[in-house]
Every structure is written in C-alpha cells, then in structure tokens.
Amino acid sequence: AAPAPAASDPAPVPAQASADDPTAVNQSIDDLLGDHVRYQAVIRQFQKAVADKDAATVASLVNYPFTATIDGTQVKIADREGFVQQYDKIVTPAIASAITQQKYSELMVNYKGVMFGSGEAWINGICKDKACQKFDVRVVAIQPTS
User: Whole-model pTM?
Assistant: First the structure.
C-alpha cells in the first residue's frame, strides 16, 4: 500500500466517475489499502448482512476488541457473542440505513479505510505481520455520527 498522506485526508472519489463505475474506488483501495478484491468482498458481505439483520454475520466481520457507542456511552465489546447480544444497540436503524444505502462507487477511501455514509461505519485492513503483507479486512468502526 502507498504511504498515508501527510497533511489531510484525500477527497472522496471524483464525481466524474460513472455512478455505477467502481474503477476509481477500486484504484483508491489498491493504492491506499491493498487488494480491492478482498475489500470489495467484505464490503458486499457487510452490506448484505446489515440489510438482512444478520447479527452473527456482521459480528464475524468485526475486529475485536471493538469499541461501540451504546446509548451515548463507549462500551468495549470483547467478542462475537458480545456483539450479537448488543447488535440492535450498535447497528441502529440510522446506522443500518447509512450502510445499506451506500453505493460502492461512492465510497470514500483514505488511509483510515473505507467509509460508509458520513462515517457511520469503517472497514480497514488489520495487519497480521510487521510488514503488513498479510492482513484481514475487518469492520473497525460502527458509530453514530450526530
């Protein structure tokens, strides 16, 4: 992956890209984060699981320990079981809408990962070795934005 920008986050994918054309997003993921094919698979799985209200599948995509905002308070979630138990308080209707309504071609990508909506969810690679040659693509944030 390319080094992170020094001063500011890159702008969202340019508007001149076709509304359904994933080329610019895929290129941004490749340049900033790594293999877009791996990210795209997790993004699609995440959106489908949220749309289906499949708490177990969403929980399987999350990086643990996970910090969630529940009723305005930051709560540490240790594992999948804890996430599933709190799913409805973590993935609120507003957050679910932001995730499911997000068009792949309009995702914002920067060194922090792939952003859904206005920051309601983020997906990024979690390094498994020092050189980050091996990584898992995981949900790293689900949060209210207002």
Answer: 0.84
